[in-house]
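hey can u check if this looks right to u? its 215 residues, i copy pasted from the old doc so theres a chance i mangled smth
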Amino acid sequence: MPVSVELMMFDFDGTLVTSGEDIANSVNYTLQCLNLPILEKKRILTFIGDGVVKLIERATGEEGRAHREKALEIFSHHYEMHMLDHAALYPGVHDLLEHFRGKRKIILTNKRFLFTEKMVTALGIQDFFEEIVAADSTPFIKPDPMLVEMILERYPVTKEKTVMIGDGVNDVLLARNAGIISCCYLSGLGKRDDLIGLSPDIVFEHFQELKDKFV
């Protein structure tokens, strides 16, 4: 039976947008500038999900600890220039957003607001969302349940009618911690086995599937 929802919260990187390659390229550009060893893209992708500061900490490691502030500066500048080199909507995303145009929708991401807003606008999906809640929009980031409490203060929606749709462990944990519906995209950046192991309420591999899972 389809689940009735009134507020749909979407993760961004790895859920709506295939942004991994551009992030990885900017990370390796940063490491190269600092004479630090470049990394395999697959490894860099495992660093995504907890915000840019954690991304840089993981990428630079102990060897680059003294360079993290400079690394963050280099990465941010390069990524702002190249975030759309390869990024695209996942197949079926635009059609799904159009299908649920009547539902209230927001983007809830641990990415910075500037980057997210620029990409949302460039990809032509800004009109589908009421707002973007990013890592630097609030004192809280996923999976802190206070993030959901803060958001629901602005929307007259019950937790039972609210769903978090994402591809990462933080998305599932946020939903569980906050008492809302967890919906997990298994074809994004997150590790499939890790996600399934968390037993999310709903899982899907193609966005067209969601048309039958929600009303």
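The CA atoms of residues 107 and 132 lie 5 Å apart.
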